[in-house]
Design goal:
about 450 residues, alpha+beta, 2 domains, 11-stranded mixed β-sheet, 11 strands
Amino acid sequence: MTTPANPPRDAGARRGDGESGEPAGPPARQRSDSARIDRPPQGSRPRLCLRPSFVGSRTRTSGEGDDPATGVLCGQPSPVYRGGYSARPLRVDDPGELIAAVPAMVGFYPSRSLVVAVLGPAEPGASPAIAAVLRFDLAAEGGRRRLAASFAALIGQICAAERATEVLAVIVDDRAGRPARKAQRGARSGAAGRALIGALAERLGSGGIRIGGAWAVAAIEEGRPWWSLFDRSGGGSVPDPSASTVALAHVLDGRPILRSRSELTDRVAVDAALCAEVGAQLDSAVAVARDRFARAVRHDELPGYRRRSLEHVLWQVANIESGALLTAPEIAEIVAALRDRVVRDAMFALAAGDHAAAAERLWLTLARGSSGSDRAEFAALLGYSAYLRGDGPFAGIALEAALDADPSNAMAILLETALRAGMRPEQLRRLARSGYATAAWLGVDLGPMIR
């Protein structure tokens, strides 16, 4: 197994599992750092090649009344960071290794899911890159054909964005049974999975997209049998997922692989006790901020007021970076400061700077300790930060929290739309640049933009 030569220094993209950005596909430099699949000679076993910077993914899950197609996770390679990995690929010998790599590619161990890897177009002399990874919820209501139609619509949308004509599919379902070598009448032989893949292949085929390989497994655990959904004789055992080459790259990038999606939702859940403590301080903090704002307007010193507010928030980010825990009055004061849209807009720049990790911890604290439109704004900041560093599952969860708190939050809607459309993290830098420009207009230098 090849290991990354230079792990990145800065390790740190649901209501839809999403913001507009710069159009077109990624440049060749980013593409060369994606996961790759080497096409085998005729008759040989497929050989997969995954590049170590494949760490990004994005999510959406269906809510009540949603189309089943919205139960999807979409993932992509993260941007190239300063001090990034070597371009040497991580090799995977068979589909079992690909299955073992799925948790690292989506950020958690999926269950009752269809995972689809979209293969981007090959560059001259190179193998096609995995351009995106999508996870669909197989627990969604609907018959096989309805699910296949809705899944195919989203896969087709991502394939169109990536100019892709081929995908790979993995079904993870504890209800599935490995098919017998010879089908027996009445036997549970994994027919449902094969039927879904067949219906999906039919739908995708009409749009010029082929399924290059499809496999199934009851659970992604070491020693579990996997089998081909195209060939009854094809199969094997899943190697240790925690020891996969992609998992190694994921962990070295500073991102744990969670056991389930619920662990992500728990991270952004409202902390009722903290919310009550902050709420008790908020009216006073808002009154002080409103009085200072009014005084600044009267004396024509509004830019100075906003600069001081921005500097105060940045000071608290530095406190968090040094290990400090914020008190409820301090959190309330930050909430009041960030109700000024100009100051809040400058905060998006932090996702692209040296202090992105500390800023993200602040947004998480604020999101858990607030409610309503405040929680929506902070969860959107959190989602953007996660999106930009390539952590799509967490970005999706944060955006879902934002839209649950305030369904009309414009930034969360914009980011969700980008996430569902498969927009790459690097295409969202425009928002960070706008934050830098706002800070500069207020006279604050936020340092270099590193991602």
